[in-house]
Amino acid sequence: LFAEFEYNTDLFRKETIERLHSHFQKLLEAILQMPHQPVSRLPLITDEEVQLFTHEWNQIPSEPPLNICIQTLFEQRVTRHPDKIVLVFKDEQFSFARLNAQANRLAHFLRQNGVGPEKIVAISLERSPQMIISLLAVLKAGGAYLPVDPEYPQERIDYMLTDSQAQWLITSKHLKEKFEHFTGTIIALETIEDQLTQFSEQNPQLVNTPQNLAYIIYTSGSTGRPKGTMLQHQGVINLVYSLGAFYGIKQNSGVLQFASFSFDASVDEIFDTLLNGATLYLIDRDTLLSGTGLVNALKTYKITNVTLPPSVLAVLNPDEFPDLKNITSAGEACTPEIANKWSKGRHFVNGYGPTENTVAATVHLVDKPIEGATVPIGHPIHNVHVYVLNQSMVHQPIGVPGELYIGGVGLARGYLNRPDLTAERFVPNPFAQNPGQRLYRTGDLVRYLPDGNLEFLGRIDKQVKIRGFRVELGEIEAVLQKHPGVKNAAVNAVKTADNEVRLVAYILPENQQTFDLDELKEKVKSMLPDYMVPAAFVTLSEFPLTPNGKINYRALPLPQFDVSGEIKEKIKPRNTLETRLLDIWKEVLGSSNIGVTDSFFDLGGHSLLAMKLLTAVEQQLGKDVNLVN
Q1: The CA-based dihedral angle spanning residues 22, 27, 29, 30, taken in that order and rounded to the nearest 10 degrees
Q2: Residue 204, CA atoms < 13 Å, CB-side half-sphere
Q3: Which of 347, 396, 321, 384 is nearest to 40 (CA)?
Q4: Are residues 370 and 250 part of one domain?
Q5: What is the CA radius of gyration of the chain?
Q6: Which domain range does residue 209 map to?
Q7: The 3-state secondary structure of 560-614, one letter per residue
Q8: Domain-embedded: residue 629
């Protein structure tokens, strides 16, 4: 047989066609050897490529000391640098010794009250040193911490506390009313201050191992129930040793703690800083969300290292921050424009990783201008293995999309109280030399580039990233469908002109005449975190359907993100100031149909867009305002 490949050299490189030729030949050989196998199970890639995928591109340059717990590594830092400032909050500074002493007192108290290995302690505190002290204390006591954002809707807070079976809850006295349904022990820190002085400042005896639980993070669930992901000490230690140096975190580094405590990016920010001997700067929530608060914090504290979502980086000016040398973009897909803007003269990293793999799985250092349409998500970090596979778990060739599977020491133990979902998402590793190793099915569509970098292409399922948070659209649909006035509901994620991802809810009411959309919105806000509340609600008389009778999501109408369910007269600006403000709103929200009395948040606005809005107001009008105003 003779085969000849003819191709357009303007579209294809010679190396690409040579790979295609070898894959075609390999497929023909496999058909002859295994004529009864399904095509999806036939190998395409050569033995050399198998070696490349399973070993060279998953190579582990150095083995970090994994046999250690988080608190032990922190205590080693305390011994080496007792007087170094490790934590700053407003005008308050904590040395390693002071932070350790306060955490030790609380840890001894917790252990006396029964906290130990595999015991879950919920923490619900506002941004403060007490938040850091509490999580260190839980780990020192041997337990695992569960972050509960006090800003979450009451129903979600109650569900997390009940589902996790947490026996203790550390909080503040003024937040106690949020936990009236909690059946465990509530520890309001202000009420035990005198008691804590009676406990030792010495390090508690180590009672846990690197394989014990360190923390639990709840993420969105497709069934309408959030799922608790269980992470172990060894994953955090691997993260710190892998990325501390790569992120440029040194003893003289100043790191901003930006992410919500309930979002796993905070794990990286906190422990990469504390365990590498740097200084962590905490900023209260109101300051972070004000128009100039983030800008002022970066300048005032001379922050050198920060991890921010691309949507925040997009509204900041790199020239304003000469001290900011190390930037990590994470939580959302980074655009080439943002990467090129921030990588000039700086150490800019595009990071990727699901909660199920201890924050990070792959990283890419942008050390030259990005000319393509996407920014690669890079190579795996130490002790992490990645594979691009088809539905039959067969390797996909370079350039061919497949699902990303992740293995290694950073993998979560699984989902709390969800053995069915754990078995579905964490599967045996067919490429492992040792039995018992697993892979996590990410649901992310990626492909290998010729240089070994991974390119992120999107999701396979109905999961999206909103402001850095992973959201299951099915969970929002389930909440909408529980409402008695809703016959059916669908939720789509759509991109605006400025690359902003927003959620749109499509409602099929039981009765068009009596349906109260405003009441539904309020109900949704009471049940879901703000990042999961749709930016727009559209009522329909019927859903477009596919030939097999399912909702045709692609045929759902696109709103202008100002759909409120009823037609209201738009109030025009009455003076020059209102005209200028309205122009800023239109630019930020990406909509022209806005009146001066409209609600920013009803039009699809959220906290990150509010930061963009307030920054624009200051730049264009010279007025420093915040969200309270």
Answers
A1: 140
A2: 27
A3: 396
A4: yes
A5: 26
A6: 96-231
A7: CCCCCCCCCCCCCCCCHHHHHHHHHHHHHHCCCCCCCCCCCCCCCCCHHHHHHHH
A8: no
Is residue 35 classed exposed, middle or buried when 0-12, 13-18 and 19+ CB atoms within 10 A define those classes? exposed
Q: Are residues 116 and 203 in the same domain?
A: yes
pLDDT score at 564:
41
- Which pTM value belongs to this model? 0.81
Answer whether residue 588 is part of any domain.
Answer: yes
Statement: residue 22 has pLDDT above 60: yes
Structure confidence by residue, pLDDT tens digits, 181-238: 999 999 999 999 999 999 999 999 999 999 999 999 999 876 678 999 999 999 999 9
Tell the residue number behind the tokens 């890079």, with chain if given. 378
Tell me if 332 is assigned to some domain. Answer: yes
Domain co-membership, 256 together with 189: no
547 and 480 in one domain?
yes
For residue 566, name the pLDDT band (cuts at 50, 70, 90).
very low
Number of domains composing the chain: 4
Same-domain status, 616 and 588: yes
Residue 492 within a domain:
yes
Helix, coil or strand: residue 520: helix
Cα–Cα distance for residue pair 350/366, rounded to 1 Å? 7
- DSSP strand pairing (347-352 vs 326-329): parallel
Phi, psi of 500 (to 5 degrees): -80, 130
CB 530 within 8 A of CB 606: yes
Residues 141 and 255 both lie in one domain: no
